């Protein structure tokens, strides 16, 4: 019973038991070709089984089912992510008949079929393989990385060819020149094993045998023979030759390390080889050796060799035909004779047909490929004879004519290890399963299962220091029926002959595995009934032999197409019979298969499969770190024993929960160090919620449900009780303190340690390592709870080791925790002598914060100790401070020993250094500062923003400082990871695109393909499809504001006219109502080009051979629900004539503004864009103006300008004059001045011929003069423009209409000419410019018209009678704005006082409210520095009479007054406020000033509320509507650089602004 209890104590509970079935099996049943395949095989079976149709059908179906079950196979592997992330799912490759199913999924994630392949012939084998493509062969040869590119593929082996499918979509078909017995994935490509028969023996004349192993490094490469470099004892003397020993069979192949394991069927020995690329000297040796073999003696016997090959072919087909075919094939060039073709070609088809015709023997065609490297010099005569069918014909010598160069081998195997020869060696001792496993300390073992002897042989191996060779040790035999590696936790699962599942770590037994739901096997004979099945039944399940051959890492070779049973001789073996006979009645484990990470499948005796999970070694991050640290400094043997004990304690059935895992770890560790945790007070009170370690688990009594006195004593000694006693309430109630009796253990100070325990001698080393982990956890702000748990253990160890410096250090960190633990265990001098004090142990506690503080103070620092792989954050912080603070650039190079002291074992030291060398500071960029070097180095070691967030702020401050520096001044050649670290994701995209230069040209099509196909043609015409969406998605990555702005600004699609027909309205009235609504919506549509021009500014580079696409301005609508068209041209309502004239003009301007200034365009391209349709002339006119704003119109030839102006199209002339003027801004260009003067009568000589120039063209020419002479203060131009502001009507019928626009244009032009000059108008004092403008503004008698045009104005106008007074309604706006521009930002108080609003009711009646807005705006622009972003300043512009009698903006009606016109006051009030707000917007334009925004937003919302007042009069409504539009425009001016960002992000503004988008536009 004691043995039974010990087994129970060391039992490990497996988890997640679930039934398993391959996912591909169900998919194959639903596959469209599944029924066809069955029916195809039914016909011959029915003919053979029975003549009766029904019986034959049933019998053949049963046969197909059996064969299908036998032919199915699958393999599993851990999921591989495309981006290299950790994924927690399995990948399955399932093979059945001619289908291959690749699926992904696990118990936690849904299973999905990733790929499904169907081939023509039955699939012999399917596997994953990675092909490495050298740089010169890859399409991405311009990548700066020197590493080879890995192409992940699926390989499907058929009888005559192998299909290769890459995950990138490439498909290859490689024909096979011989029958393949097995194919293996290697580190370099594929390895083929040629099919051979046991009767294939060398012929009587001795000659070089044919190779048996071949390699293919890429599907487009040739299949080349494998080279062997062996030492004495196997092939005699050490030499290089082809692998041609037919007795060697591959049983295992691994990629990392790259090794091959073979089995010699004659000597019954397993041999391990290293697989590598062949060296050039080895290639030459092999080729010379093959030439030497070609002697005349061999040539003379070539006919006998041909006969030998014919005998191998078994006479399946005539010899002459394949010889003739293959000699013609191989007589071509090397590239054509390559067996790897990307598509099916006639040569492949011929090969496939011949390969099938000679199956299953070697086939003559295999020799045709072999002769190229074995008999390249055999032929003596180049003469070709006709080939006959006679076997004895000597003309077959012509087949050996060397017309192609020899095939150069590419891979070589080096002999590493061969198992020793034993006397008891059986003939059939080939390994049925081989795998590589790692124990808990990182030691590697090569394990191979010899099923005939029920042995698992484990060979320990390790790499040499220079990693150039593998060293193999002795063989350890473990009795096993089956085995599988558990790579996730570095263990090995063994199925013993008795049926028990046992976990091993290397060759160290960990414990039995308990599987819930399966009965545990027993060796007793207490069964009620004998086993109903015989041992033969248990091993002859149809899936067992197949799974052994086709499962992953189970590498038996199927030598016969018929599945064979196990060797019957072993059934008589006594141990095997016992194990099978005394199985417990019921289900038992039959085999293990498909190990992935920590999951493995169990095949049960009832032909079902279940999948179990082997538990992790730890789940708590703190426990994992401590285990890693202790494992790193202990000797490997002791470390394995320690980990085994912990694993058994932690994973016992009913183990602890997550939060009690640390308590169990502390108890288990202290027990192994010699502590009696039952007598130590703080460990005795730990909460476990599960079983304790195996040492104390039987001793721990079950807790009583009624409680005990110890519970009361524990409560009295708790912190809660002490806090309660000191509470003021306890004193107020006069509660007497209770005396707490100390526990009995506390009185006895003779607590001692057991020096015979496993870890007693290593207590100082363990303590020091735990202290370094404690310091490491300080650098992670998320591990605060773990630090507090760890410090309690450290304090106990420090007290017992009498390390006062450490106790003081912990007390300063956590005084409350240190104060509560007082119990000490005595370690006498004799026991102390047994302890091993390592050399790295220091009396003073290492402190990372102290080290950083000394660096910042400039003091000398000692190297900081750290554990490689465990204290990586400490290493990172130390080296970053050494680099950035101390300025030592060599800190991040290989010379890190100045600041760091490694604590590691000697065996791993070199390996760690090699890792450091690989992680050392390597970069190909130009680094000019310490900050850049630090950021790039941290990226190379894998530091991310997530790590930075968890660093304490003070420690991370230097790193953050370097990141901020690099964020502002990034380099253009930094990799993507650096850009992500510094927070420049916009640059990371560019860095990624820069690495893939071929993909840059496809950015445009990719962007356009993102648009849904249904609206693609429409959205392509909206004028915004040239925006760089990738850059915009980086700027605004959290929402879809760009798409929303694009939707609002598009004008190419009809608008939605949603009008509900009232019951009383007739159809005609309903149509009129829809058209009236459309007319209102068209106002918004016609305003959209202005916003679109700003949105798409400089975003397009035109193609010289293509016209600029101008989006359509669609003024139609669609009425739901029938989506009928609503048009304004029906004549039902009155539509203003030429309503869309200026809208089309601005649409052309918006399209032209897309062109970037750096674009290469010329005069021919500008003329090329001229439309042939007259309706598009207005848009082309705007396009010309936009070219002038871009600076491109200067390239237009003078002849073309003359041609445009003589056409007489008014809008084209306006656009051209404004464009050329803007292109020559401020240059006083004489050619442009002459051009403009032709259109301005005031600038022409009196005797010149009068030209019929349209009025609007004259206005544009006047503005053009102002642009060309901007800021020049040209006297003549200023004098003429000053006179033109007050130009009287006449003579006769001229200048009688639209005088306001001409006067305003003259004022603006005068303001531009004298922009900002103020009173410094040199040479213009006699003109009295300010006084004249003031008179134009306030009125008075007209001055005498001077100049050469005075005769022209003597003749009065026949239509307008103004007399001698100035018409201020015409001249006031231009004069006011001219004053504002001349004295802009001059802060001239005297001029500003002229512009102040009247302060009496009498004077207010003489000024229009609109003019008050202009005056207020002009005054504020002059007093630029006085503008403040608050309501108080805005109200200070309102005169006192208006403030005293002001009406609230929220008032619903105006009160009556006899003395004052309250309506006039209200209008003046809102216009003055609007002018002040407009100047406020100009003052803070683009500044994102929050105070200014709130101030303007307040007035905008007030005006919106006034507009919604039901009692507002029509006059006040219109005034307020105009002021409201001014305010909304001001808001947009204020937010112009970040308009898109602030559109949706400010709370409250979206509802009011978006409700009235037409006002915004």
If you average the pLDDT, what whole number results? 75
Helix content: 40-55%
Low confidence ranges: 1-9, 39-68, 137-146, 232-236, 294-403, 522-585, 689-702, 742-749, 906-927, 994-1019, 1537-1561
Number of E-type strands = 37
Largest sheet: 6 strands, mixed
Secondary structure elements and pairings:
Elements (H helix, E strand, L loop, with lengths): L1 H8 L2 E2 L1 E5 L3 H7 L4 H16 L3 H19 L1 E6 L11 E7 L2 E7 L6 E7 L6 E9 L15 E9 L3 E6 L4 E5 L4 E6 L4 E5 L18 E4 L7 E2 L1 E4 L8 E4 L5 E7 L4 E6 L4 E9 L2 H14 L2 H5 L1 H11 L7 H11 L9 E2 L4 H12 L6 H11 L36 E8 L12 E8 L5 E7 L4 E9 L6 E10 L2 E5 L4 E5 L5 E5 L2 E7 L20 H5 L3 H8 L23 H8 L7 E8 L2 E6 L4 E5 L7 H13 L2 H15 L10 H12 L8 H4 L24 H8 L2 H7 L2 H5 L11 H4 L15 H16 L5 H17 L3 H10 L1 H6 L8 H6 L13 H10 L6 E3 L5 H13 L15 E3 L3 H14 L10 H11 L4 H6 L2 H16 L7 H6 L3 H11 L7 H7 L6 H4 L9 H7 L5 H9 L5 E2 L10 H29 L21 E3 L4 E3 L14 H13 L9 H6 L8 H14 L7 H9 ...
Parallel strand pairs: 1-29, 15-21, 33-34, 35-36
Antiparallel strand pairs: 2-32, 3-4, 4-5, 5-6, 7-8, 8-9, 9-10, 10-20, 11-12, 12-13, 13-14, 15-16, 17-18, 18-19, 19-21, 22-23, 23-24, 24-25, 26-27, 27-28, 28-29, 30-31, 31-32, 36-37
């Amino acid at each position: 019973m004691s043995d039974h209890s010990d087994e129970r104590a060391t039992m490990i509970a497996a988890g997640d038991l679930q039934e398993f079935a391959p996912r591909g099996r169900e998919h194959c049943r639903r596959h469209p070709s599944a029924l066809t395949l069955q029916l195809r095989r039914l016909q011959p079976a029915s003919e053979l089984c029975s003549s009766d149709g029904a019986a034959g059908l049933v019998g053949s179906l049963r046969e197909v089912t059996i064969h299908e079950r036998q032919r199915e196979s699958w393999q599993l592997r851990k999921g591989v992510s495309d981006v290299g992330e950790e994924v927690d799912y399995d990948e399955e490759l399932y093979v059945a008949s001619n289908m291959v199913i690749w699926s992904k999924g696990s118990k936690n994630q849904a299973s999905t079929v990733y790929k499904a392949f169907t081939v023509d012939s039955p699939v012999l084998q399917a596997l994953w393989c990675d092909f490495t493509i050298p740089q010169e062969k890859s399409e991405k040869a311009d990548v700066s990385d020197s590493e080879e590119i890995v192409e992940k593929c699926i390989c499907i082996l058929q009888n005559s060819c192998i299909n290769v499918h890459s995950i990138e979509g490439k498909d290859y078909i490689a024909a096979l020149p011989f029958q393949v017995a097995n194919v293996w994935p290697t580190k370099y490509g594929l390895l083929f094993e040629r099919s051979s028969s046991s009767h294939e023996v060398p012929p009587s004349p001795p000659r070089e045998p044919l190779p048996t192993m071949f390699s293919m490094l890429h599907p487009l490469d040739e299949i080349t023979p494998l080279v062997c470099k062996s030492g004495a004892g196997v092939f005699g003397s050490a030499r290089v030759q082809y692998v041609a020993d037919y007795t060697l069979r591959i049983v295992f192949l691994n990629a990392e390390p790259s090794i091959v394991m073979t089995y010699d069927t004659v000597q019954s020995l397993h041999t391990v080889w290293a697989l590598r690329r062949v060296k050039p000297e080895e290639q030459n040796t092999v080729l010379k050796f093959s030439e030497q073999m070609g002697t005349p003696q061999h040539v003379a016997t070539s006919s006998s060799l041909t006969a030998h090959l014919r005998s191998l072919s078994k006479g399946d087909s005539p010899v002459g035909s394949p010889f003739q075919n293959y000699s013609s094939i191989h007589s071509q060039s090397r590239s054509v004779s390559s067996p790897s073709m990307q598509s099916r070609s006639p040569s492949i088809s011929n090969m496939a047909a011949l390969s099938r015709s000679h199956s299953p023997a070697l086939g003559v065609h295999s020799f045709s490929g072999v002769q190229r490297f074995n008999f390249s010099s055999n032929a003596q005569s180049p003469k070709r004879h006709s080939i006959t069918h006679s076997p004895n014909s000597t003309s077959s010598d012509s087949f050996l004519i060397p017309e192609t160069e020899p095939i150069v081998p590419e891979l070589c195997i080096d002999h590493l290890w061969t198992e020793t020869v034993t006397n008891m060696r059986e003939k059939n001792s080939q390994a049925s399963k081989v795998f590589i496993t790692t124990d808990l300390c990182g030691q590697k073992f090569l394990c191979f299962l010899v099923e005939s002897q029920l042995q698992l042989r484990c060979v320990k191996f390790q790499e040499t220091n220079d990693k150039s060779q593998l060293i193999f040790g002795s063989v350890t035999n473990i009795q096993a029926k089956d085995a599988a590696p558990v790579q996730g936790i570095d263990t090995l699962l063994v199925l013993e002959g008795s049926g028990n599942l046992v976990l091993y770590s290397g060759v160290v037994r960990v414990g039995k595995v308990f599987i819930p739901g399966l009965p545990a096997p027993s060796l007793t004979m207490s069964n009620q009934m004998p086993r109903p099945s015989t041992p033969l039944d248990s091993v002859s399940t149809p899936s067992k032999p197949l799974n052994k051959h086709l499962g992953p890492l189970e590498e038996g070779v199927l030598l016969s197409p018929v599945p064979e049973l196990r060797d019957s001789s072993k059934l008589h073996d006594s141990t095997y019979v016992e194990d099978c006979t005394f199985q417990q009645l019921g289900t038992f484990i039959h085999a293990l298969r498909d190990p992935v990470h920590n999951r493995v499948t169990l095949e049960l005796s009832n032909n079902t499969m279940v999948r179990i999970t082997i538990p992790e070694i730890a789940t708590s991050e703190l426990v994992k770190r401590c285990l890693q640290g202790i494992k790193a400094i202990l000797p490997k043997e002791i470390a394995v024993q320690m980990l085994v004990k912990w694993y058994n304690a932690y994973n016992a059935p009913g183990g602890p929960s997550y939060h009690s895992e640390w308590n169990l770890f502390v108890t288990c560790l202290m027990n192994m160090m010699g502590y009696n945790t039952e007598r130590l007070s703080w460990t005795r009170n730990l909460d476990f919620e599960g079983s304790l370690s195996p040492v104390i688990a039987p001793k721990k009594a079950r807790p009583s449900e009624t409680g005990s006195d110890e519970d009361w004593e524990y409560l009295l000694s708790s912190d809660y009780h002490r806090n309660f006693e000191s509470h003021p309430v306890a004193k107020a109630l006069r509660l007497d303190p209770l005396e707490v009796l100390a526990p009995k253990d506390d009185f006895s100070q003779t607590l001692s340690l057991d020096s015979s325990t496993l870890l007693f001698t290593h207590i100082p080393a363990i303590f020091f390592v735990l202290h370094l982990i404690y310091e490491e956890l300080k650098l992670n702000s998320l591990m605060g709870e773990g630090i507090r748990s760890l410090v309690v253990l450290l304090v106990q160890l420090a007290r017992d080791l009498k390390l006062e410096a450490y106790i003081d250090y912990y007390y300063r960190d956590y005084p409350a925790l240190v104060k509560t633990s007082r119990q000490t265990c005595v370690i006498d001098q004799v026991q102390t002598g047994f302890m091993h004090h390592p050399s790295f142990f220091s009396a003073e506690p290492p402190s990372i914060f102290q080290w950083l503080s000394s660096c910042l103070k400039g003091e000398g620092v000692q190297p900081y100790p750290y554990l490689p792989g465990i204290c990586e954050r400490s290493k990172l912080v130390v080296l970053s401070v050494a680099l950035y603070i101390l300025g030592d650039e060599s800190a991040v190079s290989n010379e890190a020993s100045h600041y760091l002291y490694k604590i590691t074992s000697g065996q791993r030291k070199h390996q760690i250094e090699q890792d450091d060398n690989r992680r050392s500071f390597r970069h190909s960029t130009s680094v000019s500062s310490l900050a850049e070097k630090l950021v790039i180095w941290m990226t190379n070691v894998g530091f991310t923003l997530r790590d930075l967030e968890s660093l304490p702020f003070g420690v991370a401050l230097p790193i953050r400082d370097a990141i901020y520096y690099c964020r502002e001044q990034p380099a253009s050649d930094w990799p993507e990871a650096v850009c992500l670290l510094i927070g420049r994701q916009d640059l990371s995209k560019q860095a990624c695109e820069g690495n893939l230069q071929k993909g840059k040209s496809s950015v445009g099509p990719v962007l356009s393909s993102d648009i849904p196909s249904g609206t693609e043609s429409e959205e392509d015409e909206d004028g915004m499809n040239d925006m760089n969406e990738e850059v915009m998605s980086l700027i605004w990555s959290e929402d879809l504001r760009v798409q929303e702005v694009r939707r609002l600004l598009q004008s190419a699609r009809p608008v939605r006219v949603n009008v509900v027909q009232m019951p009383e309205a007739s159809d005609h009235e309903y149509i009129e109502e829809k058209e009236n609504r459309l007319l209102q919506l068209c106002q918004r549509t016609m305003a959209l080009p202005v916003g679109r021009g700003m949105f798409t500014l400089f975003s397009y580079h035109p193609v010289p051979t293509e016209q600029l696409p101008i989006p359509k301005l669609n003024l139609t609508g669609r009425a739901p629900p029938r989506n009928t068209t609503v048009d304004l041209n029906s004549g039902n309502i009155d539509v203003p004539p030429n309503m869309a004239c200026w809208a089309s003009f601005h649409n052309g301007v918006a399209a032209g503004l897309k062109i970037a200034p750096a674009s290469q365009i010329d005069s021919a391209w500008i003329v090329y864009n001229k439309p042939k349709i007259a309706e598009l002339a207005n848009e082309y006119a705007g396009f010309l103006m936009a070219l002038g704003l871009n600076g491109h119109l200067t390239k237009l030839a003078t002849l073309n300008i003359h041609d445009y102006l003589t056409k007489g199209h008014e809008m084209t002339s306006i656009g051209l004059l404004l464009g050329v003027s803007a292109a020559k801004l401020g240059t006083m260009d004489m050619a442009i001045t002459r051009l403009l003067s032709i259109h301005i009568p005031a600038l022409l000589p009196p005797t010149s011929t009068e030209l019929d120039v349209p009025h609007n063209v004259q206005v544009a020419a006047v503005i053009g003069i102002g642009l060309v002479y901007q800021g020049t203060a040209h006297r003549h131009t200023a004098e003429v423009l000053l006179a033109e502001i007050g130009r009287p009507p006449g003579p006769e019928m001229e200048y009688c209409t639209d005088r306001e626009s001409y006067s305003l244009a003259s004022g603006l032009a005068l303001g531009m000419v004298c922009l900002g000059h103020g009173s410094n108008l040199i040479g213009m004092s006699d003109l009295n410019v300010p006084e004249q403008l003031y008179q134009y503004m306030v009125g008075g008698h007209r001055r005498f018209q001077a100049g050469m045009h005075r005769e022209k104005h003597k003749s009065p106008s026949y239509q307008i009678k103004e007399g001698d007074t100035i018409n201020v309604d015409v001249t006031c706006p231009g004069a006011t704005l001219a004053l504002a521009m001349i004295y802009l930002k001059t802060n001239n108080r005297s001029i500003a006082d002229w512009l102040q609003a009247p302060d009496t009711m009498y004077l207010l009646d003489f000024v229009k409210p609109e003019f008050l807005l202009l005056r207020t705006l002009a005054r504020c622009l002059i007093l630029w520095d006085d503008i403040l972003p608050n309501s108080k300043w805005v109200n200070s512009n309102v005169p006192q009479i208006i403030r005293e009698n002001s009406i609230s903006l929220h008032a619903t009606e105006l009160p009556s007054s006899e003395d004052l016109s309250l309506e006039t006051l209200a209008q003046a009030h809102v216009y003055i406020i609007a002018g002040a707000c407009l100047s406020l917007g100009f003052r803070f334009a683009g500044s994102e000033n929050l105070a200014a925004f709130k101030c303007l937003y307040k007035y905008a919302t007030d005006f919106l509320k006034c507009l919604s007042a039901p009692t507002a009069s029509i006059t006040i409504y219109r005034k307020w509507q105009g002021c409201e539009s001014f305010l909304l425009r001001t808001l947009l001016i204020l937010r112009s650089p970040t308009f898109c960002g602030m559109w949706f992000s400010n709370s409250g503004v979206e509802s009011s602004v978006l409700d009235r988008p037409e006002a915004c536009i």
